[in-house]
Amino acid sequence: MKTILSGRETMRHKIIYRHWQPGDDDAILELLLPAEQVDENFYRNKFEDSDVEAEGIRLALVNERVIGHVWGEPCSFFIEDKCQRFVTVGSVFVAQDMRRQGVATRLMQELHAHFQRRDYRGSILDVDTEEAIRLYRKVGYQKLTQDIQTQILPNPNASPFKWTQTNLKDLSAFPELNEKWGKQNFPTDCDPKSIKVHQYNMNGYRVLRHHHNIVGYARWEEPSEYYPDGLIRDPIVPDVDPMEVITSVQAAIPTSRTWEAAQEGRYEEPLRAYGCTFEPTTTVIMLLSFGQEIDLTGYHRTAWW
Predict the structure, then answer these.
(1) Which domains does the chain have, with CATH numbers?
(2) Does the N-terminal or the C-terminal CB of the chain have fewer CB atoms within 10 Å?
(3) CA–CA separation, 233 and 231 (whole Å)
(4) By C-alpha distance, which of 57, 48, 72 is closest to 27?
């Protein structure tokens, strides 16, 4: 039976930091499952059909007990006129009795060092608690943007742009739209292995058409128990004036809808010009550059989940 030491007792034992190794999962899940940090089946099969690698999972151990964990997963975004690799961070967790000893900071530093050696451009993540924001600031992250919400009212005025349900043949237009959008908005996903919209979730998206051409798309949830007022995320429409996009949305909705945007995003000021007022959500997106600072001059901020 494994001995569980108290925080005071563990202070006398050396903390070992290393990456994941075969046979670690049972000890990791003893830490993460009670805190509801992961799904057990997913975690045990994490290397299947995934870019997750052993070196991207960092552990802190005392004797054989895992007392800290962080997971880094590769992703790609358009920035500086090209698709570049980033790491997104999750499942950062330290045992309750081992906190305030710098364990999470050390784990994050080791994770960053690994991905920086592999020429990743930076790290990006979303957080929803003040505690998490303080941790990430401590290791060098800065706030990039925050999700904000408003209510948009219908307007029956005609628009030359029409929102329609997404079908399978529409999906082929999305990568080009993303690439165009990514030249002026950050972060915009460009990982060809990670298809955000596919046949199994396309009912939650709509496409914007101008005559027979697809000029944009948006996450578009109709009112439900989970979304009482529906939900429209900032539409990915690179070549149409934002005011025209807003008008097209108003023409497509029969009742008020929740519009979720990003601070300093492309639609914030145009929506304010329509009289919309925003409330902040708890979701904050944070960014850490590896090496040379990322120049976001001229970029609008955008949510990317």
Answers:
(1) 7-120 (3.40.630.30), 153-281 (3.40.630)
(2) N
(3) 7
(4) 57
Residue-wise pLDDT tens digits, 216-272: 999 999 999 999 999 999 999 999 999 999 999 999 999 999 999 999 999 999 999
Closest-CA residue to 94 (of 69, 119, 73, 77): 69
**CB of 159 within 8 A of CB of 248?**
yes
The model's pTM is 0.87
DSSP the chain: -PPPPPHHHHTTSPEEEEE--TT-HHHHHHHHTTTT-S-HHHHHTTTTTS---GGGEEEEEETTEEEEEEEEEEEEEEETTEEEEEEEEEEEEE-GGG-SSSHHHHHHHHHHHHHHHTT--EEEEEE-SHHHHHHHHHTT-EEEEEEEEEEE-------SEEEEE--GGGGGGHHHHHHHHHTTEES-B--TT--SS-TTTGGGEEEEEETTEEEEEEEEEPS-SS-TT-EEE--B-TTS-HHHHHHHHHHH-SS-EEEEEETT-TTHHHHHHTT---EEEEEEEEEEESSSPP--TTPEE----
Task: Tell me the per-residue pLDDT of 148-162, one tens digit each, with 9 for 90 and over.
Answer: 999 999 998 889 999
Burial class of residue 162 in the structure, from the number of CB atoms within 10 Å of its CB (0-12 exposed, 13-18 middle, 19+ buried): middle
Decide if 264 contacts 210 (C-beta within 8 A).
no
pLDDT of residue 10: 47
8 A C-beta contact, residue 32 and residue 24: no
pLDDT confidence tier of residue 305, bands split at 50, 70 and 90: low
What span, in angstroms and rounded, lies between the C-alpha atoms of 21 and 94?
Answer: 18
Cα-Cα-Cα-Cα torsion 299, 302, 304, 305, nearest 10 degrees, comes to 170
